[in-house]
Structures are given as structure tokens and as C-alpha cells.
Amino acid sequence: MKLILSILRFSAMIEVGLAYEKKLIELRELIYLESVSRVMMEQCSSLGKAALLIAMAEGDLSDSYIDYAREKGFAVTSGKVGSMDIQKIIAAIETAGRREGLVDERYRSQHALYHAILDALQGLGRGQIQLGNVLRTAGLRFAIVIGPRTLQEKDDLWIAVGLYGMIGAPIKGHEHEVCGLGINHL
Amino acid sequence: MKLILSILRFSAMIEVGLAYEKKLIELRELIYLESVSRVMMEQCSSLGKAALLIAMAEGDLSDSYIDYAREKGFAVTSGKVGSMDIQKIIAAIETAGRREGLVDERYRSQHALYHAILDALQGLGRGQIQLGNVLRTAGLRFAIVIGPRTLQEKDDLWIAVGLYGMIGAPIKGHEHEVCGLGINHL
Amino acid sequence: MKLILSILRFSAMIEVGLAYEKKLIELRELIYLESVSRVMMEQCSSLGKAALLIAMAEGDLSDSYIDYAREKGFAVTSGKVGSMDIQKIIAAIETAGRREGLVDERYRSQHALYHAILDALQGLGRGQIQLGNVLRTAGLRFAIVIGPRTLQEKDDLWIAVGLYGMIGAPIKGHEHEVCGLGINHL
Amino acid sequence: MKLILSILRFSAMIEVGLAYEKKLIELRELIYLESVSRVMMEQCSSLGKAALLIAMAEGDLSDSYIDYAREKGFAVTSGKVGSMDIQKIIAAIETAGRREGLVDERYRSQHALYHAILDALQGLGRGQIQLGNVLRTAGLRFAIVIGPRTLQEKDDLWIAVGLYGMIGAPIKGHEHEVCGLGINHL
Amino acid sequence: MKLILSILRFSAMIEVGLAYEKKLIELRELIYLESVSRVMMEQCSSLGKAALLIAMAEGDLSDSYIDYAREKGFAVTSGKVGSMDIQKIIAAIETAGRREGLVDERYRSQHALYHAILDALQGLGRGQIQLGNVLRTAGLRFAIVIGPRTLQEKDDLWIAVGLYGMIGAPIKGHEHEVCGLGINHL
Amino acid sequence: MKLILSILRFSAMIEVGLAYEKKLIELRELIYLESVSRVMMEQCSSLGKAALLIAMAEGDLSDSYIDYAREKGFAVTSGKVGSMDIQKIIAAIETAGRREGLVDERYRSQHALYHAILDALQGLGRGQIQLGNVLRTAGLRFAIVIGPRTLQEKDDLWIAVGLYGMIGAPIKGHEHEVCGLGINHL
């Protein structure tokens, strides 16, 4: 009789345990997503941070940041560009902004984007807005983010351009990181 | 008899459940820390990213990033500085670097730090390394990180200076975000 | 009899002549004003030209240009500033813009004005936004003009800052002319 | 008798009136030219103003300003150039200066012109002497004026280069005004 | 007898005189070399002076300076480059540095050389690192010197790039001298 | 007899030898001066080289170069200045130029000198004409040289400003060499 009871008790425990273990696996992923969200909430609280973090993020994390920023009310687009020509980098970012509808066909919104790009390129060039002319090449990820300057001031639209990537000689591995952030009123 | 068996089974389930619930609470925090670490591992994989993420992080997250970067073998220091004078910003970063032993008393390491700071300031000034002269003030967090350019090339020492903060007119709220990154061989 | 008729005819002629002469004097001034207006209409057909012409005009002409520009729908303010400090020049223009209500208390309109001023100062400094630091002083007239970029596109608001004056050594007569124009979307 | 006298008086009045009316038509044009001249005299009193006003003037006004400046003793040439290449703009201005005899074949006068052009281009580029490299194009009118710095100091030769036009993206209508002024001793 | 003695005395004098005259000819060249060495010792006492003097020297003097600098423990290479393209000048100096073994294949030494070149080019461009874009061409001699900053501090390696030559319009004789010096820690 | 003859011969030889030895001492100094002159002739053949070599020379050599340059028809002045303020460096050079009569009281000659100084300072600042603002100090020797661009073109007056010295942090020994050359038509 005792044996039967023990078996019964044990099988009940296993039953619950298995359910919990299953739940734990689900939970671990859930908590991971919660945690990423918590990190993002702390990190990604303003226009410029959103643009920089999206430009710096790789793989899945990139999508997570974009989703999070959009959820918070920012309009976002991002992309990649590698070139020795500054004008190709500018064109790639302008095209992404237009294609994704972040800027419209009016000159004023494109003027705002253009000068945010130029400001970001100053961080890239550190004194010279030049690449091929000074024998450098750059491989970059960029993000354009539109929204209020901070999550507190909802009614004020600004534009941020974040750049992150590698700059260097046209020799593999001869490069280091570089970043830039440009912010303008829209 | 059946009732007794049911109670027995139920009490066994509760016993296991309580243990799991308790474990879950512990786990949630553990998984959060694991998750932060996973986010950091993806984000903070190189010298420049480390410097930028530490400069951008606030509160607990700042310490988490610093701990993570140190664990990965980077030497790190960070701080805050607000001023209308570029030279005070330079001095604050240089002093932090010296005080924390990231640069030694030899001119060459201080020369490397100085030019990493100047490069980071180009992102801040976007064309002019000036603040008060052009009626601007800046409130910044900075990070100095020393280590290999990436976690793969262990034997090569470089220095990164990351700057993040607000730049604007000397009127409350009249400011926007700004960042800078300077990288130099050590 | 003939004499009387001659006198009569002559006095009639004088009467008309005097009236016309009087009319001519009035007309001359009227035609001058018409002509100034015609010159202005040809000269002052866009935002930037308005800002430059007002900054360049002296005495009465200055008021004429301001009146003309206001009549055409531009908001205008102008002033004078002389200094060895770039920040004093910026402050004088910003204060005039705020006091005259051309920019409001929101950061975005002041951000637009600030960067229009910085752009105008690039023409002044020709490569360096510096004055006293490079042993120069400047005496300037400035104009802030708000309106559409041209008289044809009425619904689009931009801001222009025009600067005109003398730059030179702090020695009387050791100076030459300098000008600058900055334009930004509002 | 009274009627005859009235008719006589009236015909005399008409005779004088017609003469005056005819005179008025002539006068109106004359006074317009006088007025333009008066405006010019007030506006165009120095080397740099002459260069800027000629660069900014359109149609007939352009010729009027050139004539006026030449009459006052300035040597003047002007032209148009549109390009994405800074070197083409420089070449167009240098060629105009040489062709019109404002600078001679000696290097020193061409050196003076070249640096006046570079200074004017700083106003155009506002921080960067670049166009196509930063995806911009410019359509400009330029003026080269040689003479004393002001009409008072007759014996001192300087050179001024004035630039005025539109800068923008290579998209129709996506452009705003820009100006530049460079002055050098000859 | 007296005559014989006089002749004897005279021939002895001539014998010694001839030996001395021969010695003097040798000495003159020797003293010249000593003197050049003395001039060099006074002139060429540090890294930057060595780089500048080698870049400025012509013909035999160039080799003398290089020999002297090598003797003192500096590693030296030099060369010539003429171009309207900044990137060709950079490439020529980088190639010389690599070919002569002054920099090795590691990125860090090439990063040090690159930024020393950029710094030297600032002296060349005086505000703009541009040549063809601003319609200028340059004919240069360059020197790369590696060693301690001064002959007193033997254990500290730095790199200097000296540039000297002519800059001007692409017209024969329309050019003036230009120089640049860049120094970086290695 | 043989002995007497030997003594006689020997004493004659000594007599001549002593004269020659004395002559040699004189000669060595003479040949040194000739050699310095030969080095200078090769080195100091143009306006810019003269300005740089005088700025770089120390002690006696400095005077030798100045004397040589004056002999060749250049007007020369030189001096020392150490400061964290760019304006003090400019003032020191301008004052030396005026005091020594190289530039007269007319604005045009001072304008030529001022821009030659600014150009030289670009080599010093390598991208920024700033010192104290970026926490640097400089100790410099300068030379102003007036004359033809080369010794071949006698009738053409230009001005050169050469700068050479140390730039660094306000910490003893934390500095490296720096140079600058500015050339302008007079």
C-alpha cells in the first residue's frame, strides 16, 4: 500500500514537474524577450539613441530595436551602404528615407534629412567630409528615425540619422569603427 | 480511499509546484541577467561599441556594460562632464584616463588619448570644435575603453573614446542629442 | 489790346506752368519712390535677396527695403552688432529674432535660426568661425527674414539670415567688407 | 469778348499743359534712371557691395549696376556658371577675369583672384568647399570687381569676387539661395 | 757656402710647403664634410627637423641629410610625387613607407603613418585637404622618418612625415612653395 | 758639417710648418664658414625655404641664415613666441613685421602678412586654428621673409611666414614638433 502511495505521489510530482519544466522553457524565451525589452526601454528612450542603437545592432537585435522604436511611436528605416564616395552614402540614405516614406517629396523635409546626414558624416570624417579623396573606404549601417526628441515631448517632430560601421584603408582588416549622429528639426 | 488518494496527489503537486514557483522567481532574475548578457554579447562585441554603449547607458545598465566589457578584457573608465569650454571636456576625460590608469605618464599614451578625444569631439561639434564661442553648451557622459579592436584580435591595443549627451543653447530644454567616437592605436 | 491779350495768355500759361512745376516736384519724389520700388521688385524677389539687401542697405534705403519686404509678406527684423566675439554676434541676432517675434519660444524655431546664423557666419569667417581668437573684429548689420523661398511658393516657410559689414584688424581703416547668408527650413 | 478771352486763356493753358505732359513722360523715364542711380549710389558705394549687387542683379538691372560701377572707376566683369564641380566654378571665374583683362598673365594677380574666389566659395559651401562630393549642385552668377576698397580711397587696388545663386539637390526646385564674397589685396 | 745653405734651407721649406699644400687640399674637402656635418648636427637634432630638412634638400645634400639621419639612428625614406589628387600623394607616401620597411603589414603602424600624412597635408592645403577639386596641383618631395622625438630620448618611437614642394594653378610658373609636417606616436 | 746642415734643414722645415699650422687653424674656420655658405646656398634658394630654415635654426646658425638671406636680397625678421592663445602668436608676428619695417602702415601689406600668418597656422593646428581652446600650448620660432619667390625672378615681391616649434599639453615634455609655412603676394 505504501509503495502504491509513493508511486502515486511521485507520478503526481513528475506530472507537475514536467508541466513546469515545459513552462520554464517557454518562460525562458519569454523572460528573454521581456529582458531585451527592459534593456531597450532603458537604452532606447530618445530619438538619437534609437538611431544609434539601430545602426549599431546586428542580426535579430536590429529587428528588435526597430520594432521597439516603432512601438514607441518613432518612424524608422535602416539599411547598409559601403563606398569610397561620400555622395553614394548620402544617396543611399536619402533614397531609403524617401522609399520608406519618412520624408515626403517636399524640399523642406529632404533639406532636414540632408543636413542630418551631413552632420552624421562629420562624426564619420572627423574633420573632413571625404573618403576616396583621402584614400579611405567605409562600410556602414545607417538608421533614420523620426519622432519627438524624447518620449516625453510627443508633439514635436525631429529627424535623426545614425551611422555606425568601419572606416579604413582599402586593405582587408585595415579599418576601425566609426560612428556619427545628426539631428535636425523637421 | 479515493479522496485520500486525491488529497495525497494534490499535496504532492502543490509541494512540487511551490518549489517550482520559488525556482521561477529566482529564474526570472537569472534569466534577465542572462538576457542582458546576451544582448550585451551581441551589442558590445568591439572596442568602439563598448565605448559608445557605456557612454549611452544610464543607471544600473551603465555598470552592467562596464562589468561586461571588463570581463571581456577591456580596460574601461567613464564619467560625466558638462561645460561650455571644450578644454574642460578634454581635461575631464584626460584626468579620468590618467586617474584610472588607462593611460600612463608617458607622452605617447596621452598623445593617443588626446587625439581619440579630438576625433570624438568632431562628432560633437559637427564641423567646429567649439562650444561657448558659438554659444552652445554640452552635458556629456564619456567612456574610455582600451583593448583590441575586436574580441578576435587579442594582441593589439587600441583606445576608444565614446561621447554621448545633449548639446544646445544655454536655455533649459533647448538642446538635442549628440555623440562622438574617436579611435586611435595605442 | 494785343498787349492785354498777350499778358492774359502769358498769365494763363504761368498759372498752368506753376501748377505743373508744383506737380513735377511732387512727381519727382513719387517717381523716385516708384523707381525704388521697381528696383526693389527686381532685386528683392526672394527670401535670401531680401535678407542680403536689407543687411547691405544704409539709412533710408534700409527702411524702404524692410517696408517693401514686409509688404510682400516677409517677416523681417534687422540690427547692428560689432564685436570680436562670435557668441556676441550670435546672441545679438538671436535676441533680435526673439524680441521681434520672428522665432517663438519653441526650441525648433530657435534651432532653425541658430543654424541659419552659423551658416551665415561661415561666409564671414571664410573657413574659421572665429574672430577675436584670430585677432579680428567685425562691425555688422544683420537681417532675419522669414517667408517662402520665392514669392511664387507662398505656403512654405523658411528663414534667412543675411550679414554684411567690415572685418579687420583692431586698427582703424584696416578692414574690408564681408558678407554671409544662411538659409534654413522653419 | 469774355468768351474769346476765355478761349484764348484756355488754349494757352492747353498749350503749356501739353508741353508739360510731354515733358512729364520724358521726365518719368529720366527720373526713373536718376532714381536707379540714386539707389545705386547709396547701395553700390564700395568694392564688395558692387560685386554682390552685380552678382545678385538680373536682366537690365545687371547692366545698370555694371555701368554704374564702371563709371565710378571700378573694373568689372560678370558671368554665369552652373556645376557640381567646384573646379569648374573656379575655372569659369578665372577665365572671365583673364579674358576681360581684370587680371594679367602674372602669377601674383591670378593668386589674388584665386584666393578671393576660394573665400567666396566658403560662403557657398558653409564649412565645406565641396559640391558634387556631397551630392549638391549650384547655379551661380558671379562678378569680379577691381578698384579701391571704398570710393574715398582711390589709390589702393583690391579685388572682390561676389557669388549669388541657388544650391541644392540635383532635383528641380530642391534648392535655396546661397551667396559668397571674397576680397583680397591686388 | 752661404748660397748653398740658402738653397738647402729653401728646398727644405719647399718640401714641407708642398706637403702642407697637398694636405690643405685634402683638408679643405675634409673640413667641408666636417662643416656640413656640423651644420647638420645643429639643424637635424630631432625627428621633425630631420623629416623637413630631407624633404627640403636637393641633389647631394639630400643624400647627406639621409646618411646623417640614419647614422644618428633614425630610419628614413624619401621620394617625390606630383599630382592633382590627394589620394595619389597619400598612396605614394604609404607605398614608400611599406616598401622601405618603415611600416610593417600591421594596421597599427599603417594607421600611425596615415594620420601623420593627413596632418602634413593640412599644412599643404591650409584649411582644405583638396587639390584638383579646387583646381590646384602640387609637386612635392616627402620624407618619412622614424625614431625618438629627440636624440636625447632614445627608447620612444615616433613617426614624422615631412612634405615640401610647390603648389599652384596648372600653369607653368604659377605656383609657390608649400610645406607640411605630421608627427604621430608609433 | 752634416749635422749642422741637418739642423739647418730641420729648423727651416719647422719654420714653414709652424706657419702652415697657424694658417690651417685660420683655414679650418674659414672653410667652415665657406661650407656653411655652400650648404646655405643649396638649401636657402627660395623665399619659403629661407623662412623655414631661419625658423628652424638655433643659436649661431640662426644669424648665419639671416645674414645669408639678407645678402641674397631678402628682407628678414625673426623672433620667438610661446602661448596658448592664437591671437598672441599672430600679434607677436605682426608686431615684429611692423617694428622691423617689413610691412608698412598701409592695410594692404598688413593684410598680406596676416593671411600668410593664418596659412602658416594651418600647418600648426592641422585642421583647427586653436590652441588653448583644445588644451594645447605652443613654443615657436618664426621668420618673416620678403622677396621674390625664387632668386631667379627678382622683380616680384612676395611674403613668407615660417613657423617651427613644439606643440603639446601643458605638461613638460608632453609635446612634439610642428611647423607651418604661409606665402602670399605682397
Please, could you describe this protein's structure?
The structure is a homohexamer. By secondary structure, chain A is an alpha+beta fold. The first copy, chain A, has 5 helices and 4 strands. In chain A, strands 1-2-3-4 form a 4-stranded antiparallel sheet, sandwiched between helices. In chain A, a hairpin with a 6-residue loop joins strand 3 (about 160-170) and strand 4 (about 175-185). The longest helix of chain A has about 40 residues, at about 1-45. The first copy, chain A, is elongated. The N and C termini of chain A lie far apart (about 80 Å). At the C-D interface, helix 1, helix 2, helix 5, strand 3 and strand 4 of C face helix 1, helix 2, helix 3, helix 5 and strand 3 of D.
Contiguous runs where pLDDT drops below 50 for at least 5 residues of chain A: none
Structural class of chain A: alpha+beta
**Which series of helices and strands of chain A comes N to C?**
HHHEHHEEE
Helix count of chain A, per DSSP? 5
**Beta content of chain A:** 15-25%
**End-to-end C-alpha gap of chain A:** 80 Å
Oligomeric state:
homohexamer
Tell me, rounded to a whole number, the average pLDDT of chain A: 90
Which geometry of chain A do the CA atoms define? elongated
* DSSP strand count of chain A: 4
As laid out across the biggest beta sheet of chain A, the strand order is 1-2-3-4
Largest interface pair: C-D, 52 and 53 residues
Largest sheet of chain A: 4 strands, antiparallel
Q: Share of helix among residues of chain A?
A: 40-55%
Using only C-alpha atoms, the radius of gyration of chain A works out to 24 Å
